[in-house]
Amino acid sequence: MVQVEQIFPSLTWRIRHEVMYPDRPFDFVKLKEDFEGIHFGLYADHKLTGVVSLFQEGTIYQFRKLAVLTAAQKMGYGAQLLQYVIDFCKIQKATKLWCNARVNAKEFYVKFGFQATDRIFSKDGLDFVIMELALNKIEEK
Ligand SMILES: CC(C)(COP(=O)(O)OP(=O)(O)OC[C@H]1O[C@@H](n2cnc3c(N)ncnc32)[C@H](O)[C@@H]1OP(=O)(O)O)[C@@H](O)C(=O)NCCC(=O)NCCS
């Protein structure tokens, strides 16, 4: 059984740390904006298995730190979590959803219609590309 639920920010940290930055101190994965974000957890058989965090600026949303436990990857959970975020943003009438994608995960986002921009950068030894998905158009009056 798979469920996606809104969760407290602190619940994202363990999975972020284990999956994304296991070699860094635990506090490295805490974002200063975490308490302004909306966080979702995917529960597989009642076990927290994947997390993602969403941050809003007007009608534009950024998701950050999408991570699925290593042993549970390639089972469709990441896709379910991302689809949930996309649907959530559509309901909120977001106009755009974007992310700093790890270059090695770029094709994962392409499957959802995200387009790579020409903005690329390196941080903490990893290469990123900014990817974006156009959502609702702003209604003209
Ligand atoms: C990236 C991540 C969230 C994907 O989650 P997942 O549960 O493994 O992915 P899914 O099983 O839902 O995959 C859905 C589809 O995307 C593909 N896919 C998954 N990860 C991919 C990757 N890194 N690159 C290209 N394709 C990928 C799958 O093969 C699958 O394709 P299919 O629909 O044709 O079968 C997960 O692998 C992860 O946590 N990685 C480590 C952290 C990370 O890199 N996060 C992203 C930071 S930008």
At the fold tier of CATH, the topology name of the domain at 2-98 is Aminopeptidase
Tell me the radius of gyration. Answer: 15 Å
Number of helices: 3
Strand order of the largest sheet: 1-2-3-4-5-7-6
Name the poorly predicted regions.
none
Structural class of the helix and strand makeup? alpha+beta
The percentage of residues in β strands lies in: 35-45%
Number of strands: 7
Write down the overall geometry: globular
Quickly name the level 1 CATH class of the domain at 2-98.
Answer: Alpha Beta
CATH architecture of the domain at 2-98: 3-Layer(aba) Sandwich
The CATH H-level homologous superfamily of the domain at 2-98: Gcn5-related N-acetyltransferase (GNAT)
Distance between the termini: 44 Å
Mean pLDDT over all positions: 96
Task: Name the helix and strand elements from N-terminus to C-terminus, one letter apiece.
Answer: EHEEEHEHEE
Please describe the biggest sheet, giving its number of strands, its sense, and whether it closes into a barrel: 7 strands, mixed
In helices, the fraction of residues equals: 10-25%
Unique bound compounds: coenzyme A
Oligomer: single chain
Protein name: GNAT family N-acetyltransferase
Enzyme class: transferase
Keywords: Acyltransferase, Transferase
InterPro entries: Acyl_CoA_acyltransferase, GNAT_dom
